[in-house]
Amino acid sequence: MFVTNASRGLPRHRSRYPAERYTRWALRALTILLVLAMLWLVLAFHLRGQWMFSLLFLVLGASLAIVFGKRELMSHRYIFPALAGMGVFVIFPLLYTIGISFSNYSSSNLLSEERVRAQFLDQTYQAEGQAFDFQLVREGNRTRLYLEAKGAGKLEGVRQLISEPLAHAEAGQPLAIEPVQASPPGEALNLREVIARRDTLEALTLVASDGTELKMAGLRSFAPMLPRFAENPDGSLTDRRDGTTLTPDHERGFFVTEDGERLTPGWPVAVGLDNYTKIFTDPDIRGPFLQIFVWTFVFAGLTVVFTLAVGFVLASLLQWEHLRGKALYRTLLILPYAVPAFISILIFKGMFNQNYGEINLILENLFGISPDWFTDPALARTMLLIVNTWLGYPYMLLLCMGLIQSIPRDLFEASAVDGGGPLTNLFRITLPLILKPLMPLLIAAFAFNFNNFVLIALLTEGSPDILGASTPAGTTDLLVSYTYRIAFQDAGQNFGLAAAIATLIFLLVVGLSVLNLRLSKVKV
Fold first, then answer.
1. 240, 226 in Cβ contact below 8 A?
2. 378-402 pLDDT per residue, tens
3. What is the CATH number of domain 18-100?
4. Which of 429, 447, 443 is nearest to 517 (CA)?
5. Which pLDDT score is estimated for 10?
6. Which keywords does UniProt give here (predicted)?
7. What is the pTM of this model?
8. Which CATH architecture describes the domain 124-227?
9. Which residues of 393-404 are buried (b: 16+ CB within 10 A; e: fewer)?
10. How far is 109 from 189, CA to CA, in rounded Å?
11. pLDDT tens-digit map of 486-513
């Protein structure tokens, strides 16, 4: 007869195993700590104006509290970490990239409008005609600054001022100055001693009792540093030097002068589909983009064809019954797959060197030619295909070997009875039986090489460049490396345009994935 907690008078939810109860308490405590950490991140990102990250951690924290707080959702706790990781590292970056593609986010439009305004308001300028000559004077073991106005300049109605001892200027704190009527007290230091303290003097900020700040303006002078811009009630800024008005342009994300000149830095604003239309309407972008777009498909397609051809031929030779040492040949042919790709690429980069590479030395000795592998567009693309074929054929070799071995021997015996030869077996038996299971893997290989950034970055870096392009674009660039160069190597770092191209790449890869699933007969 079974004895339950209820029959013993114990609550149903209380376990008779202390370890289980303590584990449950520890899990609850950990959940509470994680939720509190998420709420802290939400508040921190919200205060910094990063509403997308704030929303991300708010959703994470709420879902964590719900899943681990309700007993009805206990079965979902095991899959929650995987879903949370996918949301943080896959879905959120994707949505963030798509969001950036609809903005003018770039190196010149990087800060928020509030921070841009604060930067302008923090700018200062040196007041003309109000400079003060200075001397360093020593009074015992203390050193002070003695200031005397040039010309008719004055500060607080006096011409002479003296500072607190320089020792009071600790950790970059301002140094107070006060009027003085007498000549400089103490001994004036010579120019050599002034130069020796130049770094300290340049870091000094002298503050008068009325709040005027003086900074070092030369080797022998200090001058008042006045705020350059004044903020107006309508949000515009006035330049106090010449009275110029800066008006915020919320369509372009810049402060503009009365003449229409844009002043950097700016702030990100929504531009709609401008980045997408620019790709197809701006001739300086459309031409290189279409050229790179076509080359990306050609590169990925030819890579798959060449690697499959080499891998299939070698796999067929390794199946030859009269071949001796198959294990040795199989090991040697698969070795390139065991070497890290970046090492092989860098070795090939040295071998294809136009002046000292082994390949050009061999070609020059045999045929008297020395191809320009890195400066001629056609040869550079040929070099990429050669290297990528070397890197990819072992994968196709393994696939073809496995598929060929799975073909029943009875089919070849029946073909031999009917008088079929090697070519008949190849085109009537082997290829039809292995192409169908190979097709999804070939599409996956195509998608991988479609975004083969490492090969381009390490071997050619996209060179040679496409002439006349307004963005950094090369004849060997793929779409993914072209996007990287726009985002991180262009002087303007146009993240919005790069995000638009990245979104198009994502749509193409999604299409390839759907096609792969269809060919694999998986419902989507």
1. yes
2. 999 999 999 999 999 999 999 999 8
3. 1.20.58.370
4. 443
5. 46
6. Cell inner membrane, Cell membrane, Membrane, Sugar transport, Transmembrane, Transmembrane helix, Transport
7. 0.77
8. Beta Barrel (2.40)
9. bbbbbbbbbebb
10. 48
11. 988 876 789 999 999 999 999 988 888 8
